[in-house]
Design a protein that fits this description.
This protein is of the alpha/beta class. The chain is built from twelve helices and seven strands. Helix 6 crosses helix 7 and helix 10 crosses helix 11. The protein is globular and about 80 Å long. The N and C termini lie far apart (66 Å).
């Protein structure tokens, strides 16, 4: 007797995730399906699928956002295929570009998923994701730190207080802080304002130092080999190395420099039409923080590495911003090579 093998039916679920509710669109390989709302619960979606689509091969997708990867990990634990996608990767046709609702978003995700046009972003493991949260907390503190310093200097400028030349720089020494503490104003409210801001400044300063220490300690302990490899590269200090480990993860996952530079945003945009080909500058799609780190690191690399300095001088005469981007891309290439070969960077060695 001949046995017929029937492929499992497929279910594609597009989800528009929000804090208070999810908009769901379920589509099978032979039908368009329907759209509905439900409470934000992976378990609730599991119960729905088991009730109405039992035996289906399930694939889900939702946009990366503030709700993180908890739902993704839950879906994978059910044996489903799950994608977290970049919103920019969801193709919109005609009027869809000008109309946005939760229902339409869920339907678009399900349609793109069914047509096989979606690729998921890299989802970090739980340990690295939580380490990333500490790194991002540090960045928040850096912004607060800069803001409160700016507010203090703005108050001095507003009241016509001249900062002594020895203190008028970006480094706030203990001497400058003591000078601020003893500064006299004609009336007490201005002094009270400055006191309040100095308390906030000292709190943020202490918190920033503490978080930075915790971040470096964790990376040294759990990612010691890659941390030390990154630290061997000129321009990459402890915090930048931590940022690379937290935000980019294991650089070995990148296939080549083109893959990595596209992710970081150090790849040029290209416009081509007929015989016309031109560069549109740096791509807008980028990891802006890590890109800025590599650009800043490039200036330090130029000062300390003769090979990088020679590469910079080779392009002198062009736009300075364009040159430093070229240096940053070269530094990124060497960073990838250092990690993939497990070989520390040697200053002055041509590679």
């Amino acid at each position: 007797m001949k046995t017929e093998h029937t492929a499992r039916p497929k279910l594609f679920i597009g989800i528009d995730i929000h804090k208070r509710s999810w908009k769901i669109h379920c589509s099978t390989d032979i039908s368009g399906g329907k759209t509905f709302s439900m409470s934000p619960s992976p378990e609730g979606l599991l119960n729905y699928v088991e009730k109405y689509f039992k035996g289906h091969e399930v694939t889900t997708a939702y946009e990366a956002g503030c709700c993180g990867y908890h739902a993704h990990r839950s879906f994978e634990s059910y044996g489903w295929r799950s994608l977290v996608v970049n919103p920019a990767d969801i193709h919109r046709k005609g009027k869809e570009k000008h109309t946005k609702t939760d229902r339409i978003d869920a339907q678009l995700i399900a349609r793109e998923l069914k047509d096989g046009r979606l690729e998921g972003i890299h989802v970090p493991d739980m340990e690295r994701e939580q380490l990333r949260s500490l790194f991002r907390r540090r960045n928040d503190l850096v912004k607060d730190y800069r803001r409160i310093k700016s507010l203090i200097k703005s108050q001095l400028l507003y009241f016509g207080v001249v900062i002594p030349d020895r203190y008028d720089n970006s480094h706030w020494s203990h001497g400058f802080r003591d000078w601020l503490d003893t500064l006299k104003f004609e009336y007490s409210p201005a002094r009270a304002t400055l006191d309040s801001r100095m308390r906030q400044f000292r709190f943020v300063d202490q918190d920033l130092r503490g978080v930075s220490t915790q971040l470096r300690r964790f990376c040294k302990l759990y990612y010691k080999k890659d941390y030390n490899l990154l630290r061997s590269i000129p321009g990459i200090g402890g915090i930048v190395a931590c940022g690379i480990l937290c935000e980019l993860g294991d650089l070995r996952r990148f296939r080549n420099l083109k893959h990595l530079s596209g992710y970081v945003g150090l790849a040029p945009g290209i416009y081509q039409s007929g015989d016309t080909v031109r560069s549109t500058g740096m791509t807008r799609r980028a990891h802006r923080l890590i890109r800025s780190y590599f650009i800043e690191a490039s200036w330090q690399a130029i000062r300390t590495d003769p090979v990088m300095q020679a590469y910079y001088r080779k392009h002198l005469g062009k736009n300075v911003k364009s040159i430093i981007i070229k240096v940053a891309r070269k530094l990124l290439s060497r960073t990838l090579a250092v990690i993939k070969t497990d070989t520390p960077y040697v200053i002055g060695v041509l590679k």
